[in-house]
Design brief:
By secondary structure, this protein is mainly α. It contains three helices and no strands.
């Protein structure tokens, strides 16, 4: 049984496809490999979900860049 076309991805599926930089390996999501494959297949055929994944990926990259620049800009006198 496949996923209904009108069932868009949820936040857990989004996190599985676009993990945050602070998450590691298998801890990054709780979806089974089959569920991840089904989600990827849906995203490839659904323009709305594809756009959602793309925007979320961009957001995660920006967040990662901001976090890195904050750490590198802290000086020795910073508490």
């Amino acid at each position: 049984m496949g996923r209904p076309f009108d069932k868009h991805i949820d936040n857990e599926e989004l996190d599985a496809l676009v993990p945050s930089p602070s998450e590691s390996g298998q801890d990054r999501h709780r979806l089974s490999p089959d569920a991840v494959r089904e989600t990827v297949s849906h995203v490839e055929s659904c323009a709305d979900c594809s756009s959602k994944v793309s925007k979320y990926r961009q957001l995660m990259q920006r967040s990662s860049n901001v976090a890195g620049s904050v750490v590198t800009s802290l000086g020795a006198d910073c508490p």
